[in-house]
Amino acid sequence: VADDAFVISTTKMIYKLNGNTGEVMWKQEMKTPPPALAEAEGFGAFGGKGNALANSNATSTSAEFFKYKNPNLIYFASHTVMTAFDIAGGKEVWKRAELESPVAQIIFDDRGILLCTDDSRAPKTDAEGHVKKSHGLMGKLTSGGGSGKAFINLYDPETGAQKWSGGELDLAGSVVFYSYSGNKLCIATEKSKGQNAVNVIDLDAGKPAIPKQLKVDGTIVDVRMLPQGLLYRTTEETNILDLNTGKDIWAKSIKYKDGGLGVDKDNLTYFNGDGTLYVMDNTTGQFKSFPNMYKFDGKEAPGSCELRSNGVLFTSSQNLTLVDFNGSQVYKVYKPAPGI
Known about the structure:
mainly beta
């Protein structure tokens, strides 16, 4: 917090220490659970798109300090508490937010600090953010919290006061992606019963901005704003959500059994679906397709893709195929599994 001072959190207290002498400059009581193993739900990186659960290769932290606009304040979030302290004197300036579900993401917005908590019933993910087991169901977006349920709320950065008159919004599922459009926050959410959903929140009113949530098939892998609305891509379908009506813009989604992998290049998105390469213009929302560009042997499907200088490379354990930007196959390689 300064050239010669830092703050630490223990399971019982928060301390500000003199970096030269180790002297305790101030302390505040704050009970914080010890770090949890990665198999238990932790909370991930604040802000940006991403996975709200712990990296499977590391021990998850149970607390985090961070700063925002006011250089005199230090914010603190744990699984069950969020608050802020005056750095100089240690006074707790927030009305401490006591949470019934663990912190998942914190979004720094011009209107305040958006806090998203995690639903303990959400699926666990691997290090890349892929769901390990079932793919999830998002509940109805309603006002009012519930024990253990995920929610989103807007807090005043200076006082910790809740800024939405109706209080927090229940998500009943964990936020996996989000995207902005003016005063609207588009969020993709998942739980653990085989379905996922996209919702849009009016950040000024603190209410849902579309008549009802959009249920989608498959695990959500990307959401982004286009002039026409919110593009969503899952492991089973792709479409654009009209932010005014809450309905899909395309009469029929792009459907596929194995797909959804994608990369961006020059305002275009390249993604796959059942052997077809799709190319979408992110400005117009128009797309074209190149069928039968890859067909993996050994009953495999692509598990990853990456951008190369001359195309998009799709790979699996025993296959790799490079497709150029004009939709032509550059090469295909299959190495049969060695067996016993």
